[in-house]
């Protein structure tokens, strides 16, 4: 069964990505609300078909920590990727001045379990772990977006990637080594710092400094850390292990799940629903003030 554009009714725009818009849509045959991500790529038909084939492994694979995939199709040279609608959006727009430790730990548990599912069940590495690719809903659930299952899609996106915040591990920048699961662990560590401190930890290019400053800092400087005045030793140690410059020394997902930072909050019933609702209201208020 193949879905196509005629089956969808546009509801509203959810956001603009680097490669196209994300829309909230109604899938008329099933009555399901979905998010439809447009990915504009200049690719030939055979590459587009390969992407659809690769995305197919997501069908029927389900994890509570991965955004559900409903199907994809292409029109001209755009890929349309239909997925579970997450009504609070991505974490980059929710973290504000930084999330408290208990919320951070709960988010981290979801991210690690999602990554572990991809690795162990789908036999895939994610390749694009960052707060924009982690979404929340009003039930307080946190889930990962996972385009990484399509190697072709990732390669096509990477070629055109012009993002100004790099989550790439130092070994990837220095030696262009093949992507490994350890590089995802680095990106996870960097994302945790951004979520906890409320900002991306490396210099961001502006009109005075180019992106080279960021790249040099990632390679030459000591890895960033969570602020000691707000975060426990356990959480800081967790991040330090993820951001070990030696990829071989970074922990596995199973080891990360056993770390005291996550163990402490595993059964703590953190009020994620309350946190998401407050963060979402703050996001709306900020957006209203701007307009
Ligand atoms: P890009 O990665 O190219 O920057 P995104 O995937 O981040 O594009 O999409 C842009 C915005 O669309 C996100 O910031 C998020 O708010 C929204 N969005 C993306 N996917 C979903 C989804 N499944 N449910 C709800 N909103 C989404």
UniProtKB/TrEMBL annotation:
Residues annotated as domain Protein kinase: 8-262
Protein keywords: ATP-binding, Kinase, Nucleotide-binding, Phosphoprotein, Serine/threonine-protein kinase, Transferase
A GO cellular component entry from the record: protein-containing complex
Record's catalysed reaction(s): L-seryl-[protein] + ATP = O-phospho-L-seryl-[protein] + ADP + H(+); L-threonyl-[protein] + ATP = O-phospho-L-threonyl-[protein] + ADP + H(+); L-tyrosyl-[protein] + ATP = O-phospho-L-tyrosyl-[protein] + ADP + H(+)
Single GO MF annotation: protein serine/threonine kinase activity
Residues that bind ATP: 37
EC number: 2.7.12.2
Enzyme class: transferase
Gene Ontology terms describing biological process: cellular hyperosmotic response; p38MAPK cascade
Similarity-based family: Belongs to the protein kinase superfamily. STE Ser/Thr protein kinase family. MAP kinase kinase subfamily.
Protein name per Swiss-Prot or TrEMBL: mitogen-activated protein kinase kinase
Biological classification of the source: Eukaryota, Fungi, Fungi incertae sedis, Mucoromycota, Glomeromycotina
Boundaries of the shown chain within the full protein: 108 to 398 of 398
